[in-house]
Prior knowledge:
The complex is a heterodimer of chains A (149) and B (49). Chain A is 39% helix and 14% strand. Chain A is an alpha/beta fold. Chain A has a two-stranded parallel sheet with strand order 1-2. Chain A is globular, with a radius of gyration of 16 Å. Chain B has a 3-stranded antiparallel beta sheet with strand order 2-1-3, with no helix packed on it. Chain B is 12% helix and 31% strand. The termini of chain B are far apart. Chain B has 1 helix and 3 strands; from the N terminus they run αβββ. Chain B is globular and about 35 Å long. At the A-B interface, α1, β1, β2 and α3 of A face β1 and β3 of B. β1 (40-47) of chain A pairs antiparallel with β3 (40-47) of chain B, so a sheet runs across the interface.
Amino acid sequence: MSDSLYSRQSHVPLAAHRRERKYPSLAVQLAATEASGADMVTVALRRVDRRRRRADVLHHLPEGVTILPNTAGCYRVEDAVTTAQLGRELFGHALVKLEVIGDERTLFPDVPATLEAARILIRDGFTVLPYVSDDPVACQRLARWAAPR
Amino acid sequence: MAALLRELGLGGRRVAVAVNREVVPRSGYESRTIAPDDRIEILEAVGGG
């Protein structure tokens, strides 16, 4: 048992911040999202930072897009599962981009942990969009669980 | 829980809360009591996919 839920999150803000800085401003981000015609936009779930009055990214998304919460920053099955469940509470649907990170530097997925988390979430009624490497056996297993015959 | 969120200045903010890994639905904030050793996680959505 680790000492803290999401204990690694505080050590990996880099990727998230890098991604946040893709756009010079939220207005540009909104315009780019609209221009792309995307039906779905991924957001990350993070611990609230009370000191930072962050502009709410959700106010800067086009009308009608489906918001897809991810579990970025999670290194453990339990953290990813809880984060997914919090996303379901936040957005009212059971769609999740599942990420269980296995390597802090490359952000490559921990595939066995991703499979385990996916199985738990599928049983809990989620539609799981998993972040995995191109391992055909792992992917076949995920496909079988997601769409049992 | 509702009082805690207000005290933290998060009353109006769109957040999701778990106590000891169990999600507390928004509708349950008023009735949910918290104990000294509870582990409370408060998450919100940020940009970045």
